């Protein structure tokens, strides 16, 4: 998540994030888009889509499957150019899955 008190300031992350490069899939109504996850926290994550693929209606989004982690129900927090930021609909459900993944790779959001 990002916090900004002014439209003239750069957004600042409000909680620790881990930079990663993992493949993921946006599961839409009737289709799927491949993307790359580039950062993650206990609240959500951000993905980068291939150029020109960020034009679908966000209402079509059902879930996101992150390779090596799991599938999560999410909602979009922001959208800009070829990037989308998501928050977990259930942080309580995501936390144990993320803890297991972070322990497995030996890195945590900092």
Automatic annotation (TrEMBL):
Domain PilZ, chain residue ranges per copy: 15-90
Top-level taxon of the source organism: Bacteria
Pfam families recorded: PilZ
Protein name: PilZ domain-containing protein
InterPro entries (alphabetical): PilZ_domain
